[in-house]
């Protein structure tokens, strides 16, 4: 990976347009155009990709060039692949061409934007980074600013990663990520948002979902609320929006979460199913199998599903109820946890986090995107809490 970083810096340093952009670059001018979305608010439509990821379309540059990206609630930054790419994955849209944008500006080393990224690399006064994506792979890119137009937000200059190399094999079409994490380089921080919300339309309807920024982020009825877990700046959880799960009700069974293993990360980008610590999952699986009313199929469909049922036998399946700290209860209907895989079969889309075999996730739980369908979730950074309520996400505007 180090060799890729050196290569990209040589490419940029040798380009006349790169050198010209670096001379006289005024960071304050680049920052001035950034949108304060809390003032007027904005709405960003996004959709389910064929692989069932949440993807938004937007434009970068002057004149605008089309791009698409995963909406990543836990993402650190905004990035897209660029035309200097020497080892990148295939995407559906044309790759962003920095030289074709009159507003593209690579960041010199030492600026606030360069210092704010997770892993800055500098050579020849060009700021670059080497970061880990939500897919687990690495991306290497030039740190830059350019004009973004996303949803109903006014075009604004934002810092982003102009990726020129990665070890990702495929992303199924999108060109990058839009990170919403609590980091200086995320869309949330750059737009100076104190609140945002989203509502996922059911994946099988073909309807758009919505991301609401700033003043547009509000629930119709106030909703239930739960506080974010308190973190410190040096805590590995500080860039996320962790909450605490107290218990899960499945049929007649109530499963109490063990202390120290009840933190939940809400996910939008890569993790579509929910994952529970293994001890809880084993109890949960037994409770669901007892309450669904149908015997599991003898041969599961296969990865990633472990437990499957004949579709005709689950008409009496109960709602699940996830109760979080402060009593906030999320009701998950059968359609949101029994996933239709075809062939008259549905599978349990809640699994053990042990399947990932990732030490860093030991003791954590994940609320996947399938279980969030038709729920409007509001993230309030001033009040440090998550609010949510049932909603017809396809009809919100």
Automatic annotation (TrEMBL):
GO molecular function: aspartic-type endopeptidase activity
InterPro entries according to UniProt: Pepsin-like_plant (IPR034161), PEPTIDASE_A1 (IPR033121), Peptidase_aspartic_dom_sf (IPR021109), Plant_Aspart_Prot_A1 (IPR051708), TAXi_C (IPR032799), TAXi_N (IPR032861)
GN (gene name): LOC127753498
Lineage: Eukaryota, Viridiplantae, Streptophyta, Embryophyta, Tracheophyta
Family: Belongs to the peptidase A1 family.
UniProt protein name: Peptidase A1 domain-containing protein
Residue spans crossing the bilayer: none
Taxonomy, superkingdom: Eukaryota
Annotated Gene Ontology cellular component terms: extracellular region
CDD domains noted in UniProt: pepsin_A_like_plant (cd05476)
Keywords: Aspartyl protease, Glycoprotein, Hydrolase, Protease, Signal
Coiled coil: none
Gene Ontology biological process: proteolysis
Signal peptide: 1-20
Taxonomic source organism: Oryza glaberrima (African rice)
Pfam family, one: TAXi_C
